[in-house]
Amino acid sequence: MRSGFTDLLRGLLDRPLASYYLLLSSSALLLTIGLVMVFSATMVESYRATGSATTIILQQAIWAVVGLVCFWIAQRLPSRTYRAVSRPLLVVSMILGLILVVMSIRESQQDPNDSSGIASDQLWIHLGPVQFQPAEIAKFALLLWAADSLVRLGPRIASWRDLAIPMFPIAGLLMIVIGYADLGTMLIIVAMFIGLLWASGVPLRILAVLLGTAMTGSALLIAFEGYRMERIISFSRPEDYADTWGYQAIQGYYAIADGGWFGLGLGESRQKWEWLPNGHNDFIFALIAEELGVVGCLVILALFGVLVYTGFRIARRSDDPFRSLVAAGVTIWLAGQAFINIGGVLGLIPMTGVPLPFISDGGTALVVVLAAIGMLAGFARAEPDAAQALRARNPSRLVRLLWAPLPPAPSPVAPPSGDASVASPRTGGSSAPADLHAESDSEVPKSRPTTRKT
Predict the structure, then answer these.
(1) Range 158-167, long-range pairs (CB < 8 A, 24+ positions)
(2) Partner of 166 at 20 to 30 A CA spacing, among 27, 145, 202, 375?
(3) pTM
């Protein structure tokens, strides 16, 4: 019986488009659960503020539609387009981050009674009726830029000098800009950046130095802001700060405890009646535990597990270095953000205020995540086996127009010349002869690059 199930599962995973459908199904389920839980978590607040229980969920649904449009566009773009826009997008995200820093400094110097400024803990930029978080754009920008830069470096990634110019100064500046106002996002960016370096084959000695530097920088950012230190202290003893910094954590624990194994029922949360602050955002996992119980939480964790497995599977099966690195980076980003959010709600780590991907209320975060998933979907379709299967189907022009164009033809693998050996990347990806400097998905290099063994 067990062997039959294993064979069935292996047969399903061996299908050419398995990565694509796993990605679509897990993402769609997480998005659906997120919209349902945002509606449940916000109906009380929405009715109190606007007289309608559906105002906030309608706004989130609009953002979801925008995100799905971005998914559709991102799925259609070739990797050369992402490489081309990586630098301009990084510059834009840095400028937006600097604007936030300036706003925070100005607010700190204003009269406390003057409410015209932007609060230092407010991570949004307002453009009329539209508001967005530059930190979410920064994740996507740094991911594309770092992957493109590492691919261009090729075997030179083992050199401090080649890595340091210009990668570390720009990445460090971006982390400082974002970390000044949003330490949680900075930690995600650090994890994603170091994960990209590891996946590309950067020596462990360099990674160790970078990790130590990141930990030191994080400690300094915590020490410079008193409220961050208070959060660290209250994390270890929340009951001693039940009326201040520990209040949110304690209310979250109450929600989790009330849920039990099967929850109170969808929409039956007690904590959302203005007991749990940010229950629709940072602490939405606590409300999931309260309404859907341990079983509902395990479903969420399983879906994230499928998503993470699929992301690394795409990275391993890609025949293009850029696509492989970006897939690994997106996976580390989403997995790290989910771990930081859920771990903070459960009291495993200090709460940093990052949203739960797909599920928390927030327009910018949802749009950026769906765009990243769309990009991954395009990469999944470009896997060699998937590309061959899609080309064999020869879908109609209307299907290609309405959904996605055919992926580029997989590059033929040429046998290595002489005694030269090509090491697989740490992601386990194939050793296909993709040109590290190629700008076109259809460009096939004349010879196979030689890289060091990892």
Answers:
(1) 158/201, 158/202, 158/203, 158/452, 160/206, 163/202, 163/206
(2) 375
(3) 0.85
